[in-house]
Design goal:
- With 141 residues, this protein is an alpha+beta fold.
- It has a two-stranded antiparallel ribbon with strand order 1-2. The protein has a two-stranded antiparallel ribbon with strand order 3-4.
- The radius of gyration is 24 Å and the shape is extended.
Length: 141
């Protein structure tokens, strides 16, 4: 079933890495692109070097100790963004991959149940409050 040893090695790697169909197709298309471009990644260390070089352009993440108080006291390490949330949000808005996906207008969402379109909430913590306030602003002015 395999045309070459490299085909077998690739399929085995996909299986070991537990890649999804989408991830496998992305990897295959990247491999096909290497015929037209110079591929400079040589090993895991070069991947880490590239990430380290890119990290100054994004919000800092650090490993910090935290304590959880329940019936038992548990100490554990947690990674989180140490800089202010505003700076992190601004970083995300500047990123051309993320910024088109931000939605700042309230939306009513519906899905079809076979007979009717039924309104549903995807943000239970705000429900209709954001929608109502935005509609009120539009009609008040």
């Amino acid at each position: 079933p395999f045309l070459s040893r490299i085909d077998f090695d690739f399929v085995e790697l996909v299986l070991k890495a537990k890649l999804t169909k989408v991830q496998t197709n992305e990897l295959i298309s990247l491999i096909h692109c290497t015929a037209f471009e110079q591929f400079s990644v040589t090993d895991y260390d070069s991947v880490c070097t590239m990430w380290d070089a890119a990290s100054p352009y994004h919000a800092k993440v650090s490993l910090n100790p935290m304590t959880c108080y329940t019936s038992l006291t548990i100490n554990f390490q947690v990674q989180f963004k140490k800089e202010p949330l505003w700076d992190w949000a601004c970083d995300l808005l500047k990123d051309h991959h993320f910024s088109p996906h931000f939605v700042f207008d309230a939306q009513h969402l519906y899905k079809y149940d076979g007979q009717n379109f039924v309104h549903f909430f995807d943000e239970p913590w705000t429900a209709n409050a954001f929608w109502d306030s935005q509609v009120c602003i539009c009609y008040c002015f």
